[in-house]
Write a sequence for this structure.
């Protein structure tokens, strides 16, 4: 069965510091992987996705993630945090090779401090 | 504007009183889903639909019903709500490459 593990339910960084949100997956087939962001009182918005092309994926708002098959990881990074990055972030894996059916991780809440 | 809409956005109800949460999308997507979001559990899929009149259970279907009579609409029905269904609900529609989420419905069952 496919699953996703997000290490750290809460992460706090200073403004300007590196953001690193961890995601490990398990999948019996080559996975499609996604990162979504949820701002307070809003729905989920796609940040970026990996669909078996380039292993380093660039997304919106300066975020990027690297697919590492040997580590079964898809960690999300941003070189310099901004206050507006404070949100909850979800990693998700596809069962079917499309975005239509996703299994989500439990989420990581990012806090950005001055 | 391409979007997924849900109504109502907030609902407080009592145990056993049937309710329906509506979901509509204007992107002509075939695939639609319902999720619930609970603290520490992330999003869990309740039901999904691959096209009109084609629906199937997700990971947590107990206590819910859905129907898909038109491509754009995918209502979620709670025939007899219970307090353990208090949650934040999201509808989504998708292409093969991306899921698009509605703004959410916060349901409280007393």
């Amino acid at each position: 069965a496919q699953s996703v593990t997000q290490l750290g339910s809460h992460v706090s960084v200073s403004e300007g510091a590196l953001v690193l949100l961890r995601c490990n997956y398990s999948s019996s087939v080559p996975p499609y992987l996604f990162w979504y962001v949820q701002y307070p009182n809003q729905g989920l918005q796609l940040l970026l996705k990996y669909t078996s092309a380039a292993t380093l994926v660039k997304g919106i708002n300066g975020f990027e993630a690297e697919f590492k098959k040997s580590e079964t990881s898809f960690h999300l990074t941003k070189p310099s945090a901004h206050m507006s990055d404070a949100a909850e972030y979800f990693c998700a894996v596809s069962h079917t090779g499309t975005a239509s059916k996703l299994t989500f991780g439990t989420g990581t809440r990012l806090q950005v401090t001055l | 504007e391409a979007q997924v809409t849900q109504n109502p956005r907030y609902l407080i109800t009592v145990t056993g009183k049937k309710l329906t949460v509506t979901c509509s999308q204007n992107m002509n997507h075939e695939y639609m889903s319902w999720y619930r979001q609970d603290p520490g559990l992330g999003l869990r899929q309740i039901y999904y639909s691959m096209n009109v009149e084609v629906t199937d259970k997700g990971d947590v279907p107990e206590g819910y019903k859905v129907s898909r009579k038109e491509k754009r609409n995918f209502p979620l029905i709670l025939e007899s709500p219970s307090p353990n269904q208090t949650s934040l609900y999201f509808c989504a529609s998708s292409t093969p490459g991306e899921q698009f989420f509605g703004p959410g419905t916060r349901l409280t069952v007393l």
Remarks:
- Chain B touches chain A at residues 4, 31, 33, 35, 40-45, 48, 50, 90, 92, 94-99, 101-104 (CB under 8 Å).
- The mean pLDDT of chain B is 95.
- The radius of gyration of chain B is 13 Å.
